[in-house]
Amino acid sequence: MLLYLEKESPKLHERLQKLKPTKLDLQWGTTNNFVDCGIFAMRHMETYFGKTKKWECGLSVESDDQHAELNDLRLKYLAKILLSEVNELRETIMSKVKEFEELDDKIKNDMRVNAHKMIKERVKQSLD
């Protein structure tokens, strides 16, 4: 960021370059989670308003509860991205959702069970 600001805003670059970063000790911080940094970053951007002493992002301490909260946030952010007005594939996605909703409950359940395998196959096909 400093390299960018050096060219785009030299005055701000000079001010920020002099600052010493402070690492916050967050009660919801993790020691065993190495995959959810993007979800944490999005949640922090969503909830941080400059008040470090009373900042609460709504996540539990590292636990099964936190894992469930992160999964809920993952779904929330995914839905917002997929259904965004700026998503060029929004209508295609909406059409696929409608097709899925019209399927028989057993077929839908089978698809949910096999979702991970189907996703891997689709990614592989898109890369071929």
List the helices and strands and how they pair.
Layout: H1 2-8, H2 10-18, H3 37-47, H4 64-82, H5 90-101, H6 105-113, H7 115-127
Uncertain regions spanning at least 5 consecutive residues: none
Tally of domains: 2
Biggest pleated sheet: none
- Got a strand count? 0
Q: Choose one word for the global shape.
A: extended
**Ends: how far apart?**
35 Å
Q: Structural class, from secondary structure content?
A: mainly alpha
Number of helices: 7
For this entry, what is the oligomeric state of its chains? single chain
Secondary-structure element string: HHHHHHH
**What would you report as the Rg, rounded to the nearest angstrom?**
21 Å
Strand content: under 5%
Mean pLDDT: 93
Helix content: 55-70%
Quick overview of this protein structure:
This protein folds into 2 domains: 1-82, no CATH class; 89-128, no CATH class. Helices cover 62% and strands 0% of the residues. The chain has helices at 2-8, 10-18, 37-47, 64-82, 90-101, 105-113, 115-127.
Question: Could you walk me through the main structural features you see in this protein, from its secondary elements to its overall organization?
Answer:
There is one protein chain. Helix 3 packs across helix 4 (64-82). This protein is mostly helical. It is extended and about 60 Å long. It has helices at residues 2-8, 10-18, 37-47, 64-82, 90-101, 105-113, 115-127. The protein has 2 domains: 1-82, no CATH class; 89-128, no CATH class.
